[in-house]
Amino acid sequence: MNQTDQLVDLKNLSPDALVDFLEGMGKEKFRADQILRWIYLRGVTDFSEMTDLAKSFREEISQRAIISFFTPETIEISSDGTRKFLFRLCDKRSVETVLIPMEGGRNTLCISTQVGCAMQCSFCLTGTFGLERNLTASEIVNQVCAVRKDYSVDNIVLMGMGEPLHNLENVVSALKILYASKGFDYGPRRVTLSTSGLVPEMLELGQRIKVNLAISLNATTDEVRDELMPVNRRYPLSELMQACRQFPLAPSQRITFEYILIRGVNDSQADAKRLVKLLHGIKAKVNLIPFNEHAGSAFQTPDENAIRAFQTYLLDRQIVAIRRAGKGLDISAACGQLKEKLENKLLGSGKESSLQGK
Ligand code: SAH
Ligand code: SF4
Prior knowledge:
Strand order of the largest sheet: 3-4-5-6-9-10-11-12-13-14
CATH superfamily of the largest domain: Aldolase class I
Radius of gyration: 21 Å
CATH class of the largest domain: Alpha Beta
CATH topology of the largest domain: TIM Barrel
Order of helices and strands: HEHHHEEEEEEEHEHEHEHHHEHEHEH
Bound molecules: S-adenosyl-L-homocysteine, iron/sulfur cluster
Distance between the termini: 28 Å
Largest sheet: 10 strands, mixed
CATH architecture of the largest domain: Alpha-Beta Barrel
Shape: elongated
Number of strands: 14
C-alpha cells in the first residue's frame, strides 16, 4: 500500500462526515465551514492555499487528507452549444458529463453516477456495456467542480451514465456536498435524480434526502416495459406507481416521468390513454423524448404525427407534457447516450453482474 491509499479524499466526505473527520483531529466544527468554502467556492486543491487556517494545521491535515480534482481530457462541442466533457479516472476508466444550455441562458449539467450501468435497458447505449463500477462521491462531485471552473451550472441532473439508485450511498453523500450551504449551496429543487425504477431504493431516498425525482417510464404495460427495461420484471408498474404515490413532495413539486417514444412500440393512442390512467392521482409532468436512433439499436423514432398526437392526448387531459429535444445529438451527448470508448471497455476487468449482491 502506498501512502495515498491511506489518505482521505475530502471530496468523499459529506459536510457532517467532514466535521467528524476534523473532530477526530481535535479541531473545532467551524473549521469544516472554512474548508468547504476553500474547496467548493474557491476551487482550492492544495491545503497550503487555505490561508485562514494555521500553518501547523495545514501541515497536519495534508498528512492525512487530499483534495482530488478532475481536469477534462477532451471537450466536444455540439452545434447547439452542448458540451461533452470526458474525465479520466484513477483506474484509467473514464466518465462523461454533459453541459446543456437551456432557454433563458441557464445551464443544466448532466452528471454520471456509475461507469456503465447494470440495468440493461434495451434502448440505451450505456446499458449495453454492463456495469464496470460505481463512482465514488468525490468522482460524482468532481464532475460539477471541474465544469464550474469555466461555466455556470444552474441545475444538475443525475441522468448521465449509470443508475443513481444502484449507487445510493455515494449519491446521497454527493447530494449532501452539493447542498452544503458553505459550499456550492445548490437548493434541492435545482437537482433532479432520474431512476429506472428501483422501488426500495426510491423509498429510501425519499426518507433520506430531498431531491427532484424523475422516473424513466417508457411504457404503459408490464409486457412492453419488461422488454424495454428488465428492472420492470422485479418491480412492475403497479409497484413503481405505488412508490411514486408514497414519495414525499413539496406542495408545488411534481415527479417527472420520462417517456421515450419508440415507433410501433409505445407510441399509440392506446398507450397515451393508459399513461393518463397510470398517472392518475400523482403530481406528475411528462417529458416526451422521441427515441434517438443509434447504431446499437433497431428501434426507430416515431413519425411527427404520432409524436404530436401523443402529446396532444395528454395535454387535452390536463397533463403537463413537454417535448424534449435531444440536445447535443451530433456528439452523442444526449443524456443516456453516453458511451464509453471501446478502449476503456477493453481495459475494464470483470464486470459486476446486474443486481446481485444487493
Ligand atoms: N439510469 C437512470 C438515469 C440515467 S438514464 C434512468 O434510467 O433514469 C438517462 C436517460 O436517457 C433516461 O431517461 C433514458 O430513458 C434516456 N435515454 C436512453 N437512451 C435513449 C435514447 N436512445 N434516446 C432517447 N433517450 C434515451
Ligand atoms: Fe441504465 Fe438508465 Fe440506460 Fe437503463 S436507461 S441502461 S437504467 S442508464
